[in-house]
Write a structure and sequence with these properties.
The complex is a heterodimer of chains A (991) and B (208).
Chain A: E1 15-24, E2 27-33, H1 37-43, E3 50-51, E4 58-59, E5 72-75, E6 82-86, E7 96-100, H2 136-146, E8 161-173, H3 177-189, E9 193-196, E10 212-213, E11 216-217, H4 218-231, E12 235-238, E13 241-247, E14 251-257, E15 268-280, E16 284-286, E17 299-301, H5 302-310, E18 319-324, H6 328-338, E19 342-348, H7 358-362, E20 367-369, E21 371-377, E22 384-389, E23 403-406, E24 409-413, E25 416-418, H8 421-425, E26 430-433, E27 438-441, E28 450-452, H9 462-479, E29 514-516, E30 521-522, H10 523-531, H11 537-544, H12 557-567, H13 572-575, H14 589-593, E31 605-606, H15 610-615, E32 618-623, E33 626-632, H16 639-652, E34 655-658, E35 663-668, H17 672-679, E36 692-698, E37 704-714, E38 717-722, H18 727-741, E39 748-751, E40 756-762, H19 766-773, E41 789-794, E42 797-802, E43 811-817, H20 818-831, E44 838-839, H21 842-852, H22 873-878, E45 900-907, E46 919-921, E47 930-940, E48 945-953, E49 962-967, E50 970-977
Parallel strand pairs in A: 1-7, 8-9, 8-15, 9-12, 15-28, 17-24, 18-19, 18-24, 19-20, 31-33, 34-44
Antiparallel strand pairs in A: 1-2, 3-4, 5-6, 5-7, 10-11, 13-14, 14-15, 16-25, 21-22, 22-23, 26-27, 29-30, 32-33, 34-40, 35-38, 35-39, 36-37, 37-38, 40-43, 41-42, 42-43, 45-48, 45-50, 46-47, 46-49, 47-48, 49-50
Helix pairs in contact in A: 3-4, 3-9, 5-6, 10-12, 16-21
Chain B: E1 29-33, E2 36-43, H1 48-58, E3 68-70, E4 75-80, E5 83-89, H2 93-110, E6 120-124, E7 129-135, H3 139-144, E8 161-166, E9 169-175, E10 184-190, H4 194-202
Antiparallel strand pairs in B: 1-7, 2-5, 2-6, 3-4, 4-5, 7-10, 8-9, 9-10
Classes of the chains: A alpha+beta (991), B alpha+beta (208).
């Protein structure tokens, strides 16, 4: 079991006893447990892992962490892939199927690779210029198809996702040396600690930098620290967990991923963390250098090469050249050489690398100080590199012979960029640190409770990281009230890391030098932008798209900033930097959705009779947040037929409607009548106890926001009905007025909607049915008039019965405790059997009230409807008290005569049901101006013709006029009529 | 609504959930709260008469904000400023309701000056809510997946209560005892959301 030709015979943190098979672009390879997909591909000698976004250039693995710009793959089945994962972040599992993205048929042979030949015609912003004639839209689909990354899945995601809210004293983000030290110090002091690490292993760079802490191997220290944290009940350690966003009030969002292929009940978990203190120990990302051909497979970050060699025992090449302007490369050179990789040369931009070069010199490695890469050789993979001496100032090459070195691995290190994303998202300011050639967090600008420790704050040496982290952990714990002792600070030998500001080799010829690998942005693109007089970094970023790929420029931003500063002859500090926004690393939609899928997406309320409905064929739908029967399916009958039968029951016999969702608000107290008189447009003070009045409520703008009946149960006791679904809103409005405006009113309001079930018994036999059940309430017309309410018992259970209804028939609404509602419903169905009682759904009720011309707020009104528009103008002149919205009714606009009025519309063809939404034409011959529209419409069996309601300009003064109704190219003749088509005198309800 | 009818059966919204739908293992145990009544007590303004009425009637003090007061059979939950939920045996609800209502009316009638006694009221909301007791070793983790409060003992101790959002719906949480072990959280939600909450709790990912 070799695990591939590039696998070193010994070493690494992989488990050589657990070989794993995987497929990449259809070919089978072997790796080991502990590998990432990237390390396993390198071990198998796979160099081309993807194609670039724009020009389909072959690309290889550049990095070993979340900063990887090239190695993007889709994994899983072809029709249900998880798209755009980074191979460097995928823990290998047996049977993994991965495919490269943006190429066909494979990354190795990609037909679209030809696009690279057209690169001269597709510079930054080409789509604003090159493909404008004759129309950009002709080219757009093809161009969009040719660019891009992974494929979106066509089938639903079968994985489950979880979510967790967690609170702690100290949240430590990043488990490198600084993060581990911080977590240890805080935990020992007694704080509740949560440590989140994006990689699968703890230790950060200690996993590949062979360092020493407290005089022993750093990895031993990491192991002990991890064990101490994991055994503590007050600490929680999460690996594979990326902190991707910092939000208001220091809410931090984490995404925890389970290794793919593991049997987990949830694939990912989203954590919402609210911590008293947050320590960012997010480290720094090594950046590449800009030189011609720097995108060839075989070009790799020094830190990445080191991690592949040390952590995964993989040789990414046989013969390496290192290019650098900082000390880190020399550390890598030693480790690579120790594992049998030939170091052909080290090219250092600095004229004097200093003492760090001593070890390399001792091994006779050629060190070319004051040199930079002039060109590279190779087309699908690097073969050789040529460097030249730099002129003083490093803006151009000096005269002098080029040196060429054969190599298959080119390790680059351009310095370190602090991973300050979360600091910046938290509204902390960054400061340009010339000694690091990078932007670092300005600690003084950090929001309270946020600290940075380690490389993110610019500390590049291990000893600094440890002491920095430890101090931050201790301080954070103390700030959260922990008083324990943190123990001794872990120490490491002092080893400064020096960096020089150098972004790019001097330009030479036409060869492209990449700044942003993921978006295919070159130095020439930046030059073009500057030439076209773009100056602001925010503009240049958007014009060139540098740093706008899904990696948000993790490896490219700093180089782009440096280059633009040079090109515009400003300092980097003057130029400024762009804004960091969440997410730091892409998050799956699944993780964000969590468990909010299917029925959990938008929880619906169920009525007390829910089960009966479901068992009796009800088609349940969402009406205002309640799951209600739309209609009841009957065997082998269509929806229309079923609704017709329901309507017939209500009109000719007796029907039951489950009105439990109807909003019910109790209003009590000596000022209850005064209060309601202010809340309603209608007069409510004069309402007598035991009586019921229909009323509408207005917003402060005079707009009709709700309607319903108001019942006066006692001198100081009212029950307000609101539209189903509006109960919460109206209740909150009541509280708002009482708490903020009228604290002097002695009124209590209570939303009792869920406490009561409501069954509307309607139809000519309604009285008969209720009487059969046994009640102490006299239901006779003389004793119990229409628009009255009575309290008593029904089946020996206390009830309130109101003579109100939405059908226009004799109707009783029974309010009964929710727990008894289902039993009452069943009893009504049983006793009503002989009367041929039928349940009716919302659809039938809507048609019944349409026939009767009853208005439905929100359906027959819009956001401009005033009470006068619905025919209630007379109420205003009779009411003397003030009420909410009154002043707005005095506006000039409220008195316009051409306002949209609520009217009936009668189609000239009685069989034709006017389409809802169809427009009333101002001019019958041409559909150019609308005079209103149809709001409700149906066929009325009771009338033997169609009926419709609508809002029509000046409608009430146009009763009897003929109008043309326009819908989808057809014109239908109709007449404007009064709303009530059925029983306009209202005799039936008073029966 | 306050006593059982001779013919009509009173039903709990979770009666229809079959046993396997509610979890009962050591990790997560879900038990519907039955045979408890709820009275909502409100006052328009602060004042001590409500306190003394409750003390006389139930022998309970008014709880501090976000706390509960628990007696042998009854408990008072603080719901908000001048708003409390009285939880008591269902059988005792009607008499308590009638008695409290009389007390509130008397206290206003007997006060000499106008509105010197705060307006208080009681409403039977027994059927407005449905309760589920959640216990087991994973109870707190499951609740944390749908509630953004800190539910650990340091911040949400025995006797603490909160109105919050649980599983996307409004809920009243109350920690009755320590958990894990025999401990439990009581979750009251609007009756119409009872089935949703039961399903949501029961389908919580079983381990990680």
């Amino acid at each position: 079991m070799s695990g591939g030709p590039g696998r070193l015979p010994t070493g690494g943190s992989i488990d050589r006893d657990r070989p794993l098979w995987f497929l990449f672009d259809g070919k089978r390879y072997q790796g080991f447990a502990g590998d990432t997909l990237a390390s396993a591909l390198l071990a198998n000698g796979v160099r081309i892992v993807g194609r670039s976004f724009k020009w389909h250039r072959p690309r290889g693995i550049l990095a070993s962490g979340c900063e990887e710009p090239n190695a993007i793959v889709d994994i899983g089945q072809a029709d249900r892939p998880t798209p755009n994962l980074k191979a460097t972040q995928i823990e290998l599992f047996d049977g993994l199927r991965a495919r490269s993205v943006n190429c066909w048929p494979s990354a190795r042979f990609d037909v679209f690779g030809l696009l690279d030949l057209l690169s001269r015609f597709t510079p930054a912003g080409f789509y604003y210029k090159t493909f404008m004639w004759p129309r950009w839209h002709w080219f757009e689909p093809a161009i969009r198809r040719a660019a891009g990354l992974g494929r979106a899945p066509r089938l639903a995601d079968p994985d489950r996702y979880d979510e967790r809210h967690e609170h702690c004293d100290v949240l430590v983000i990043g488990a490198g040396p600084a993060g581990l030290a911080a977590a240890l110090a805080a935990m020992r002091a007694g704080a509740r600690v949560l440590l989140a690490e994006e990689r699968a292993t703890l230790g950060g760079a200690l996993c590949w930098e062979e360092q020493h802490i407290d005089d022993r191997a750093a990895l031993d220290w990491v192991r002990d620290a991890a064990a101490e944290l994991r055994s503590s009940p007050s600490a929680r350690v999460l690996t594979g967990t990326t902190a991707f966003g910092a939000y208001d009030h220091q809410l931090i969002a984490l995404r925890e991923s389970r290794p793919r292929g593991s049997p987990a009940s949830a694939r990912e978990r989203l954590w919402h963390i609210r911590a008293r203190a947050v320590i960012l120990a997010t480290g720094a990302i090594e950046r590449p250098l800009v030189f011609p051909g720097n995108d060839l497979p075989g070009v790799m970050l020094c830190s990445a090469a080191l991690s592949y060699v040390v952590q995964y025992a993989v040789r990414p090449g046989e013969r390496a050249v290192l290019v650098t302007c900082c000390d880190s490369a020399y550390l890598a050179a030693e480790a690579l050489r120790a594992r049998g990789i030939t170091i052909a040369a080290i090219i250092d931009q600095r004229s004097d690398p200093g003492p760090v070069a001593a070890a390399a010199q001792a091994c006779n490695i050629p060190i070319l100080s004051g040199h930079a890469v002039a060109s590279v050789y190779g087309s699908r993979s690097i073969r050789a590199v040529e460097c030249r001496p730099l002129a003083p100032g490093a803006r151009s090459f000096a005269a002098g012979a080029p040196r060429r070195f054969r190599c298959d691995l080119l390790c680059v290190s351009g310095g370190w960029t602090p991973t300050a994303h979360l600091f910046s998202q938290s509204r902390g300011r960054l400061r340009y640190a010339p000694e690091l050639a990078a932007w670092v967090p300005e600690q003084s600008s950090a929001p309270a409770g946020l600290r940075c420790a380690g490389a993110v704050s610019g500390s590049l040496s291990l000893d600094e990281c440890l002491s920095d982290g430890f101090a931050a952990g201790r301080a954070a714990a103390q700030a959260s009230g922990a008083t324990g002792r943190s123990g001794a600070i872990p120490r490491a030998p002092a080893q400064p890391v020096r960096v020089s500001a150098f972004w790019s080799s001097p330009p030479r010829g036409r060869k492209r030098a990449w700044v942003d690998l993921q978006n295919d942005v070159t130095r020439a693109d930046l030059q073009l932008a500057v030439r076209e007089n773009l100056r602001s970094i925010e503009h240049i970023k958007r014009y060139t798209t540098a740093g706008m790929a899904v990696d948000q420029g993790k490896t490219s931003n700093m180089n782009a900033l440096g280059l633009i500063a040079d090109l515009t002859e400003r300092s980097v500090a003057e130029l400024g930097t762009t804004t960091f926004r969440p997410p730091y690393d892409p998050v799956t939609l699944g993780a964000l959705a969590g468990r909010r899928l299917g029925a959990f997406y938008h929880p619906l309320r169920r009525t007390p009779v829910d089960r009966w409905h479901a068992e009796h064929g009800a088609v349940l739908q969402d009406f205002g947040g309640w799951l209600r029967p739309a209609w009841y399916a009957r065997e082998s009958r269509s929806r229309e037929e079923c609704i017709r039968l329901e309507k017939r029951a209500a009109r000719t016999r007796v029907s039951l409607f489950d009105g439990s969702p109807l909003g019910k608000i109790e209003v009590r107290g000596p000022d209850a009548a005064v209060f309601l008189n202010r809340m309603y447009y209608n007069e409510m003070r004069s309402l007598a106890p035991g009586r019921v009045r229909y009323g509408v409520m207005l917003s402060e703008h005079g707009i009709v926001i709700d309607d319903g009946v108001c019942m006066r149960l006692g001198e100081e006791h009212f029950l307000v009905s609101t539209t189903s679904g509006a109960a919460g809103r109206i209740f909150a409005t009541f509280e708002d007025w009482l708490q903020c405006e009228w604290p002097d009113l002695e009124v209590l309001v209570t939303n009792v909607t869920p406490a009561w079930g409501n069954i509307a018994v309607a139809g000519p036999q309604a009285r008969e049915l209720i009487q059969r059940l046994g009640t102490d309430i006299d239901l006779a017309g003389q004793a119990f008039a229409h628009l009255s309410v009575r309290t008593g018992t029904l089946c020996a259970v206390p009830v309130r019965i109101a003579r109100v209804g939405f059908t226009g028939e004799l109707s009783f609404e029974i309010n009964i405790a929710a727990g008894f509602t289902a039993a009452l419903w069943e009893e009504l169905m049983r006793q009503g059997h002989g009367l041929d009682v039928a349940p009716i759904g919302v659809d039938a009720l809507q048609e019944l009230r349409t026939e009767k011309g009853f208005l439905h707020v929100g359906t027959d009104t819009d956001g401009c409807t005033l009470p006068a528009d619905i025919g209630m103008g007379a109420v205003l002149s009779r009411k003397t008290d003030d009420f909410v919205g009154r002043r707005s009714l005095e506006r000039t606009d409220a008195r316009r005569t051409d306002r949209l009025h609520f009217v009936g519309l009668a189609s000239e063809d009685p069989r034709l049901v006017l389409p809802i939404g169809a427009h009333v034409l101002a001019n019958a011959s041409s559909p150019t101006e609308s005079h209103g529209y149809v709001t409700s419409s149906c066929h009325s069996e009771a009338l033997g013709r169609s009926v419709a309601l609508g809002l029509v300009s000046g409608g009430r003064s146009r009763l009897g006029q003929s109008v043309a109704i326009f819908s989808q190219g057809e014109i239908y003749p109709a007449r404007i009529v009064a709303p009530a088509a059925y029983d306009p005198e209202g005799a039936r309800a008073h029966a | 609504m306050l006593e059982h009818g001779r013919m009509l059966e009173h039903r709990h919204p979770l009666d229809q959930l079959a046993a396997p739908q509610l979890r009962s293992g050591p990790e997560l145990r879900l038990v519907p709260v039955t045979r408890r009544g709820l009275l909502l007590i409100q006052a328009r303004s602060a004042g001590s008469s409500i306190e003394s009425i409750l003390h006389r009637t139930l022998g309970l003090q008014l709880p501090a904000p976000l706390k509960t007061e628990r007696g042998e059979h009854a408990a008072i939950l603080w719901l908000g400023p001048r708003e409390w939920l009285l939880e008591l045996p269902r059988a005792a609800t009607l008499s308590a309701y009638t008695h409290l209502q009389e007390c509130f009316a008397r206290s206003r009638a007997s006060s000499p000056g106008e509105s010197s006694a705060p307006l208080g009221g009681v409403i039977d909301v027994s059927d407005a809510f449905a309760g589920i007791d959640v216990s087991g070793t994973r109870a707190v983790d499951v609740l944390k997946s749908g509630c953004s409060l800190d539910l650990e003992p340091q911040s949400f101790a025995v006797g603490d209560t909160a109105r919050t959002a649980l599983a996307e719906v409004p809920a009243i949480l109350w920690r009755l005892t320590e958990t894990p072990g025999p401990g439990l959280y009581r979750c009251w939600v609007e009756r119409g959301f009872a089935t949703h909450l039961a399903h949501w709790l029961a389908e919580a990912p079983a381990g990680w």
